[in-house]
Amino acid sequence: MNPLPWLVVLPLMTALVIFLLPTRWRAPGSLLAAVFLSLISIYTLVEVIRLGILVHALAGYAAPLGIRLRADGFTAVMAVLTALVTMFCAVQAAAYLRGKPEEEGFWPLLWFMWAALNSIWLSTDLFNLYVGVELLGLTAVGLVALSGNAQSLAAAMRYLLAALLGSLSYLIGVALIYGELGSLALSDLALHGIGLPTVLIALVMMTFGLVLKTALFPLHGWLPPAHGGALTPVSALLSALVIKASLYILMRLWMTLDVAVLPVYLAWILGLMGSGAVLWGGWMALRQNRLKHLVAYSTVAQVGYLFLFFPLVTGTAATAAVLAWDATMLMLISHALAKAGMFLAAGNLVFAIGSPRIADLAGVCRFRPFSLLSFGVAGVSLAGLPPSGGFNAKWLLLQSTLASGQWVWLPVLFIGGLLSAAYVIKVLGHSFIEGPLRDHFRTPPLTQEFSAFILASASLVLGFVSQVPLTWLRIGGPFAGGG
Amino acid sequence: MIRLLAALFACLTVSVVLVVAIINRSLPEGNLPAQVAERLPETGVSHAVTAVLLDFRSYDTLLEVAVLLVAVVVAMALREAQPDGPDRMGLANPLLRAVVSWLLPLMLLVAAYLLWAGSSMPGGAFQAGAVLAAAGVLLRLAGVGFNWMEHPMRLRVVLAAGLAVFVAVGTGCLIAGRAFLDYPPKFAGSLILFIECAVTLSIALALVSLLQLAPPQEDGPLLPERRRRFRK
Predict the structure, then answer these.
(1) A331, A393, B32, B41: least surrounded by Cβ within 10 Å?
(2) Residues of chain B positioned with their CB less than 8 A from the CB of A234
(3) Do residues A84 and A458 touch, judged by C-beta distance below 8 A?
C-alpha cells in the first residue's frame, strides 16, 4: 500500500477529530494519533529505501493536469524528522499545557501544522507548494498568537505580515512561471531551465519570498519576537521545522533547475546573506538577556549556515557540490533536533526559575542539573563541537569550502562556531554561579525533561551515525551517484 | 520618513521588474486548457473551472478549505484571550430588519442556485458560501441573535463538515483501491455536488463566525457571561 497520501490524510483527519473532541481528550488523542503517523512516516522511509522514489498521482491525473505526490530520500527523511520532533514536542506539550487555556487551540493547530509540513515535503507542484505554505504560515501565526498577551499578539501580527509578503512574492513568481511555461509541475520547470528573462525574474521573486519566510538575515526581524515569545513547544516546532519548510522549497527549486545555468551571483548573494546571519545572529544571541530570545537568535545564526549551500553547489566542482549537499542535509537534521531540544530545555529552565531572564539562572545547576544537561548537550551540537551531528556537518562544510576554493566562507565558519560556543557557555556560566540568593526552584514534570533530553541527545547520536541518514538522503536526489 | 521612502523605492523597483517580466513574456508552450477540455467528460461536471477546482486539482482546494478552518480555529483561540464587552453588533433599526426579511429568502435562493449552477456554469461552493455568509452577516447586523451558534459542539460540527466530507470522500476512493480523490466515474458528478454542499455550509459558517468572534468594542461595561462562550 502506498503510504504517501496517508501522510497528509491522517493528520488532517486527526485535526478534525481533535477539533471536535472535548478539551480534556485532546492531548491523549493527539499522542495516540502521533504514534500512528510516526509509524507511517517510518514505513515511508523503509519503502523509499527498498523501492526508490515513490509517487502517487492525486485524483488519478498525470502531472501537468493533476498534482503528483513524490517521495525520494530527502522527502522521507524530512517526514521522519517531522514525526520525531513533533512527537516529543507533543509529549512535552501534554504536560506543559495541562490546564492552561491555550491547550484547547494548540492541539488542532498542531495537527494542521503537521499536515501542512507533510504536504510540503511531498509536493511536486509550484502552486500546491504555495497552498501548503499558506496553511503552514497561518497555523504557525496562530500558534504564536495563542498566548494572547499583548507581546505575543504583536509578534504574531509582525510574523503574519512577513509571511503574507513572502507568500505574495512567491505567488507572483509562480504566476509568471505559469504564464511563461504553461505548467506548474516542478518537473516541467526542469525541462525548460531559466533561459528566459521572465523565468529569472520569477525565480528572484520566489527566492525573495522563501528567504523572507526562512528569516534569513537581514530579513530576520520577525523571528526573534515570534519564536522567543511563543509557548515553549511552539517555539521548538517553529524553529526546528517550520522555517525549514521554505528552505526546503528553495532547495528543491534550486536543485530542479540545472545548476550549471543558474546565475552564480544570485547564489553568492544568498551565501553572503547567510554569512551575515551567522555573524549577526551569533552576536545578537550573545547580547540577549532573556533565555528564549537567546535561543531564537541562535536560530537566526544557524539558518545562515544552511544558505552557504547555494554558492557551494552553483558552478562548482562535483566533489564540492556533493560535500555541500551532505553538509547541508546533516546541518538541517542536527539543527532541527538540537534546536527543538534546546528550546524545550530552555522552557523547562524558565519554568524552574520562574523568570525568563538569564541572570536568574544562578544556582540552577545544583538544583535542576538534568534540564541544564539537555541544554548543554544541544549546545554542543549547535556550536559544532565533536562528537555531534553539528560537528560532522561543519566538518563537511569546511571540506566543501576547501574543495570549491571559496575561501571566503572559512572565517565565517570559524567565527560562527566561536560565537555559538560563547552564547551556550554564557548560559551555562550563569547557571554555575553560586548565589546566596535562592535555593528554591520549581520541578518540571519528568516527561517534559525527558523529551528535551531525547531530542538533544539525538543530535549528539547523529554524530556517530551520520553516514546512515546521508545514504538515505541521496536516494533519488540530485547527487544520487556521488560520494 | 526614511521608511516611507524605502518602501516607495521597493514598490517602484518591484513594479518596474514585473513590467519588464511581462513585456518579455513569450507565449506559453503548455496546452493545459486544451488538456482540461479534452478530459472534461471524465470529471462528471461540464464547467472547466469546477472541474479544475474539484477534480483535476481537488487536492489544492481541499487544503484551501483547511486554511479557512484554521483561520476560525485561531480566531476562537484568540477570542478566549480577549476581554469581553457588550454585544454592539446589532443595530436597532426597524427598516434594516424589514429589508433583511425581504432579502433573506432571495439570498438563500441565490446561494442554492450558485451551488447548483457550479457544475455547468460559473458558480460553485465558494461563491454560494459567500452569499450565504452575507445573508448571515445581514441577519447579525439586524440584531437577530444566533442562539443556535452558542452551542459549541453544533458550531464545530458544521465548521468541520466541509473538510471532513472532502477528506472522507478522498479517503473512500483511496480505500476502494483508487488514488486519493480519484472519484469513481459513475458517481463523480454526485460526489462533487455532495462535497460542494458540505463545503458551502462550512465556508458560510466560517465567515460568519469570523465576524461573530471579532473582539467587542472597548467602551461599555464588561459582561462576564459572554466570556468562555465557545469553550466546552
Answers:
(1) B41
(2) none
(3) yes
Q: For residues A274 and A423, what is the distance between their CA atoms, to the nearest angstrom?
A: 19
Q: Say yes or no for a CB contact (<8 Å) between B231 and A5.
A: no
User: How many Cβ pairs within 8 Å bridge chains A and B?
Assistant: 172
Give just the sign of the alpha carbon dihedral A180, A183, A184, A185. Answer: negative
Cα angle B4, B6, B11; round to 5: 95
What tens-digit pLDDT sequence spans chain A (483 residues)? 789 999 999 999 999 999 999 888 999 999 999 999 999 999 999 999 999 899 999 888 887 888 999 999 999 999 999 999 999 999 999 999 888 888 888 999 999 999 999 999 999 999 999 999 999 999 999 999 988 788 888 999 999 999 999 999 999 999 988 888 888 888 877 776 666 778 888 889 999 999 999 999 889 999 999 998 899 999 999 999 999 999 999 999 888 876 666 778 889 999 999 999 999 999 999 999 999 999 999 999 999 999 999 999 887 888 888 899 999 999 999 999 999 999 999 999 999 888 888 888 888 888 888 889 999 999 999 988 888 999 999 999 999 999 988 888 999 999 999 999 999 999 998 888 876 666 677 888 888 999 999 999 999 999 999 889 998 988 887 775 543
| Nearest-neighbour CA in chain A from B73: distance (Å) | 7
Nearest to A131 among B60, B78, B160 (CB): B60
Stated pTM of the model: 0.93
A54, β-bridge pairs: A71
The domain segmentation of chain B, as residue ranges, is: 46-215+222-226
Q: Which residue in B has a C-alpha nearest to residue A105's C-alpha?
A: B77
Grid-cell match 494519533, residue found? A33
Contacts of A105 in chain B (CB under 8 A): 73-74, 76-77, 80
- Measure the CA–CA gap between A409 and B136, rounded to whole angstroms: 59
Contact yes or no for B74 and A105 at CB 8 A: yes
- Cell, residue A450: 525527558
